[in-house]
Design a protein that fits this description.
The protein is of the alpha/beta class and 411 residues long. It is built from 12 helices and 18 strands. Strands 1, 11, 12, 13, 14, 15, 16, 17 and 18 form a 9-stranded mixed beta sheet that branches. An 8-stranded parallel barrel has the order 2-3-4-5-6-8-9-10, surrounded by 4 helices.
C-alpha cells in the first residue's frame, strides 16, 4: 500500500515540488521493474516481451523498461525514434498510415526493428526499403468482449488484413524472405484469455500452409508470432492472475508453437496502470447541491478516456491531508478544470472531507491517461516525479509545462 503523504512530503523535502505546482504526477520506477519481471516469469521461455509506448511514453520510463530487457511497441514514427533513443532493446512498429519518407528515417534502427504492415498497401511501401524484419497484421475477427471502440478485431476494422484474403496473405509470406512475423491484436481492456485461444486456433492452419510454401520456395522459416497486447489491468492483490492464465494457455495448449517461433507480446496498460499516481490541488468545493463537487486542477486534460468512454476508471482516491483519518467521510463528484460539462473524473466518490487548497490523490493513473493528454482549453501538463522508494531515489523526470510552450504550440 502506497503511503502517499510520506512520498509527497519526501518530494517536498527535496524541493521537487514548488508553489507553482497545482498538480504533480508520481511514477514508481521501482514498481514497474518488479511488475515486468513477474509478468515475464509466467510466459514461455522463447518470449520477447515489449511494452506499448503509447500507454506511457515518458523517456525515463522507456529507459527503465529497456533496462529490464523489455522491448517497445510503437504506433508511430515518433514513438519508434523516442524508444530507440532511450533503449537498445527490440522495437516493434505497428499502426497504419506509414509513409516511405518517414520509414527511411528508421533505417538506422533496422537490425532491431520489426515493422508490422497494417495492409497490403502498407506492405508495398515497407518492402521498397531494406528492412530485414517485416510482419503483416492479420484481423482474425475474434470477439475480445470489450467496449466497441476498443475492439480492433471486429469486421470492418481499419486494423489488419482479414482472413477473407487468405490466399493473398499466403502469397505475401511465400515471396519475401524478410517476411518473418505474423501479427494480430484483438482489443484493449480484455479480461479473458479465451479470445487469444480462439485466435491461435484460427492462425495455426494458416501458419502450416505458409511454412510449407516458404520451404518450397527456398525461404527461411517464419520467426515470430506477435500476439499483441490487450489485457486489462487488474488489482495488484490479484497477483497477475490474467498473466498467469495467458501464460499457462500459451505453454500448455500452444507450447509446440514456441519450439519453432518466438512469442512477442505488447502489453501496455497491464504493466503501467498501477505504477503512477496523481496529486492534484482542489481549487474549489461547490456545495450548491446535496452531493458537493470538487473542482480539481486535473480532469479530462489528463483523463480523456474517462470523459469520452463508458469504461469504468481503475482509479482509487485519497485525501492527502495529515488529518484525513479523523475527518468525516462525504460523497463527492470530482470535476476537472476544463470548460465543458463532460469534464468529470468520477462521480459519487467517498472521501474524507476535502477543502479548497488541499490535495486530492488519484491512484492507478499510469496507463492511457497523461499519454492521451488533451490540449483542449490549453491547460498546463504537470510535473512528473520518478521515484524508487526502496533505493530512496526521487527526481523530476519531466518538468511542468510552461505557458510559453503552450503559446508556441498554437502559434
Amino acid at each position: 500500500m502506497k503511503n502517499f503523504l510520506s512520498l509527497f512530503k519526501k518530494a517536498q523535502s527535496l524541493n521537487l515540488i514548488d508553489s507553482f505546482d497545482d498538480a504533480v504526477l508520481f511514477y514508481d520506477l521501482g514498481a514497474v521493474s518488479q511488475l515486468l519481471e513477474k509478468f515475464a516469469s509466467h510466459f514461455p521461455s522463447n518470449h520477447k516481451p515489449t511494452v506499448a509506448v503509447k500507454t506511457c511514453p515518458l523517456a525515463s520510463v522507456l529507459q527503465q523498461v529497456g533496462s529490464c530487457h523489455y522491448g517497445h511497441e510503437a504506433a508511430s514514427l515518433s514513438e519508434v525514434i523516442l524508444a530507440a533513443q532511450q533503449s537498445n532493446q527490440l522495437l516493434v512498429y505497428d499502426g497504419p498510415a506509414k509513409e516511405i519518407h518517414e520509414l527511411e528515417l528508421l533505417l538506422p534502427y533496422k537490425e532491431r526493428l520489426i515493422i508490422n504492415a497494417n495492409s497490403f498497401g502498407d506492405l508495398k511501401k515497407i518492402q521498397t526499403l531494406p528492412f530485414p524484419n517485416i510482419g503483416l497484421r492479420l484481423n482474425l475477427q475474434v470477439t475480445p468482449h470489450v467496449e466497441k471502440r476498443f475492439d480492433v478485431s471486429q469486421s470492418g476494422s481499419q486494423f489488419g488484413v482479414p482472413l477473407d484474403f487468405k490466399q493473398q496473405i499466403i502469397d505475401a509470406f511465400s515471396q519475401d524472405e524478410r517476411m518473418n512475423t505474423v501479427h494480430f491484436h484483438l482489443g484493449s481492456g480484455m479480461t479473458s484469455v479465451v479470445p487469444f485461444e480462439e485466435a491461435l486456433q484460427l492462425l495455426e492452419p494458416l501458419l502450416k500452409v505458409i511454412a510449407s510454401n516458404r520451404s518450397k520456395n527456398g525461404l527461411s522459416p517464419l520467426k515470430n508470432i506477435d500476439i499483441g497486447g490487450g489485457l486489462a489491468a487488474e488489482p495488484l492483490a490479484n497477483n497477475m492472475e490474467r498473466a498467469k492464465k495467458l501464460g499457462a494457455l500459451l505453454r500448455e495448449k500452444f507450447g509446440h508453437l514456441w519450439e519453432n517461433y518466438t512469442l512477442i507480446t505488447e502489453m501496455g496498460q497491464y504493466i503501467h496502470t498501477h505504477c503512477a499516481w496523481l496529486s492534484t490541488k482542489i481549487a474549489d468545493v461547490l456545495d450548491h447541491r446535496n452531493r458537493p463537487i470538487l473542482i480539481a486542477h486535473s480532469g479530462a486534460n489528463l483523463f480523456p478516456r474517462q470523459a469520452y468512454t463508458n469504461t469504468p476508471p481503475p482509479f482509487t482516491y485519497a485525501n492527502l491531508s495529515p488529518s484525513s483519518s479523523t475527518r468525516p467521510v462525504r460523497a463527492y463528484d470530482i470535476a476537472g478544470p476544463l470548460c465543458f460539462a463532460g469534464d468529470r473524473v468520477e462521480e459519487n466518490v467517498s472521501l474524507p472531507t476535502l477543502e479548497a487548497g488541499e490535495w486530492l490523490v488519484v491512484d492507478s493513473v499510469g496507463a492511457n491517461t497523461f499519454s492521451l493528454y488533451s490540449m483542449h482549453c490549453s491547460w498546463i501538463f504537470p510535473k512528473v516525479i520518478g521515484y524508487n522508494e526502496d533505493k530512496g531515489e526521487f527526481r523530476i523526470i519531466k518538468d511542468r509545462m510552461r505557458t510559453e510552450e503552450i503559446v508556441e504550440f498554437w502559434s
